[in-house]
């Protein structure tokens, strides 16, 4: 297996030398400066690839081997194949990536909001901080800040009581913080920042779209793009919903093993793959992660390894240590190692540590939420240790 590292580009506080020191060999990156829906150019991709791979004398080489992500415009999620111009632009971006010999593209199909948290610096007993999703705070935002029409029907009487009490205890600063965290798009997100009125308008555009229709639009998108991907040897890997359940009355269609099975049945192209994210899928107690890894071993094109810890009634959670929480990381890696051993040389599974804790010197720095250097370095070291113990040291 190959050790990856998400890198936000030349303006990120984490440098390429930091990545080398962490022990990673493969860069996972994207052209975040390009507006959503605008086609990437070969020149822009080649410039980023040169920046990553032009190894200074005496330094360990790095390779840009995975794009995360080429954002899928909202129009595609709402209209499917009818969003022809947006799909054509996405294919042009895919082709630019393939022309630069990058063979894996990660993407998601979450409508309106991408990965969602209510807190980006939840305090831990160690003094470090982690990102967290608190169900009561989320409900308070949905019901009393966003004031989503019809939202009350999605919550029980007890949920609404707790949400009201939570909202009443919030200061103006706390309301502003949670609004910024949920509506303003976290780093690496493939959704656009929104004001509260804009958020409501966007939700209104989805009022006729249920899970079946959203899934149909994803299938139509894949039917349009997988021929281009397959012709160029590119694997498209769908990231799970995060968290893996409906939010804001919106459907989610990549939350379980059966969701992925339905997608693979509908679009059997070998270019149609899975990003196996243990943290996202692990939030649901009914997701058996080792079994999912075993079931889709041939479809897994990219792996995010992190663990989450469910709290309260199970709907709240926070990012735990990579070897802690509710994810049996040893069992997961055992399955992934078995799958990796069946692959030909040069096609080993790429994984990366995900969503590390903010700790040590990073507590005094401005860091991308979920992507501090030290917490991810710690996670990667722990994951590497499991691989050595399984007799499968990383490539």
From TrEMBL:
Catalytic activity: D-mannonate = 2-dehydro-3-deoxy-D-gluconate + H2O
Keyword Manganese attached: yes
Alphabetical GO biological process terms: D-glucuronate catabolic process
Annotated Gene3D superfamilies: Divalent-metal-dependent TIM barrel enzymes
Position of the signal peptide: none
Top-rank lineage group of the source organism: Bacteria
UniProt keyword annotations, A-Z: Iron, Lyase, Manganese
Flavoprotein in keyword set: no
GO MF annotations in UniProt: ferrous iron binding; manganese ion binding; mannonate dehydratase activity
Pathway note: Carbohydrate metabolism; pentose and glucuronate interconversion
Entry similarity comment: Belongs to the mannonate dehydratase family.
Function field: Catalyzes the dehydration of D-mannonate.
Protein name: Mannonate dehydratase
Organism: Lichenibacterium ramalinae
